[in-house]
Amino acid sequence: MKLLDFCPRPVVTALAFILLLSMYSCDDHRVPPAGPSLPDRIFYALSDNNQLHEINIRNTAAPLRSFAITGLEQGDMLKGIDFRPATGQLYAISSMNNLYQVNTKSGDQEGKATRIGSAPIAAVLNGHVGFDFNPTVDRIRVVTTSAQNLRLHPETGAIVPGDSPLNGYANPMIGAVAYTNSRAGVTAAPGGAGTTLYDIDPNTDMLYIQNPPNPGGLVPVGPLGLNIQEIGGFDISPDVSPSDVYPIASVKFGDKWELDFVDLATGKLQKLGDFPTNVNITGIAIPPLPVAYALTDSGMLKIFNPENGMEYGTKAIPAIPGVTLQGIDIRPANGRLYALGDNSKIYGIDLGSGAITELASLKLADNTPVMLSGTYFGVDFNPVADRLRVVSDNGQNLRINVNDGVTIVDQPLKIGMAGPTPFITAVAYTNSYPGTTATTLFDIDSQSNTLYIQTPPNNGVQTDPKPLGIDVAPGIGFDIGNVSGKGYGLFTVAGTTSFYTIDLSSGATTHKFPFSGPVKGLAVGFGL
């Protein structure tokens, strides 16, 4: 099942669901509503044996699939999970204080964990862990039942300094936390929708608001209405409309694990269903909304939903004097957004703030500078080699180690083994997730309006031409979804820019929705 299936079905809205729960609460909050009356939505549950369970809220006792998490450090156990709204990746924290991203896509890399950073985080986590992303700053909130209160950078695992232990009452034992409005592009109030951090203490059986989050102050909302033994995760759906939002928590009651609805206004729990017998839940996570990033001609970063065109927001990338950014891509290995400057430098862009940082200059292994050649450039990460592929409209073909800028100058692009130079202005690899062992590089020639496969990529050979069926301008955004396997393009046709899907087997394009102006690059999230 695709992550995109998380979106609410029109048959049963969350508003109707909440109204139904209010009727049930008048009778018995321990009696779950009937299955068909519940939202038809997916979430993931982490169990204490390092397994993930994909579950429909309508039938919590029968997971749609369960799979082992592999690739962990020897003896490590995961203690909490959450999806990163900015990229769609599932993150996890462990008993050995390691931060991981975990592949939820079905296939040969299903459940593969990749550690973020080269070492554990610089803190020892004591007790049960609450773990959730703050969508406004793209940082991870980590709290524990021993009153620890931390923020982590999702791309490095570094601890953001300045937070205080949890406080507000004697001996807080917060075991789970969740932010509202957990969507990419959300900005802090009062200028934006903002976000609120909710906490559950299984010792006091209370729901709290952590406000302000960094100083760790806990303000009571109300009692859970249930004497729970443990809390095994808490999450709040990322819906845009307040009437569609639903909060859920995994709690242990009567020696059994169950899923409950959490009333954020009162704190009261309503049982939704039981988890499978003998499965001990330590974390839950609701998939985020689909997300994509477009680098505009004016140097802005537009954040939008590639399924329906809804714009989540715009980040202003600080201007670098004399430099124009030529393309972007999210690196599968660490989830960071990288950009290529026309000054032959690699930059990192903070997905929370839009801040840009110079990372490396292109150079050969002997430190000889490598200069870009061309006017339009295609930029995409090879997920197998973890190298950035850069091509241009005049046939340049580069492989770049973004850690140090060391560049391999590959053979120039050519049509066939010895044909003319194509006008390639966009490229994208398939299977863009860590650990993949196979990938295909697709190129777009914006003069001939042709989709090619570049194979071998290092030789620059353009093969298997397929017509796009539209006349596109050279400024293109192009990327490929991991789950859907589709190509996605931002094309300007007859002066109008729109978002298209691309059938990679035929080259055929399908218009989806108009887009606000021409672009230089596109990067789609990992859940698409």
Automatic annotation (TrEMBL):
UniProt-listed InterPro entries: DUF4394, Quino_amine_DH_bsu, WD40/YVTN_repeat-like_dom_sf
Protein name as it appears in the record: Uncharacterized protein DUF4394
Domain of life, source organism: Bacteria
Source species of the chain: Dyadobacter jiangsuensis
Residue stretches making up the DUF4394 domain: 52-285, 303-523
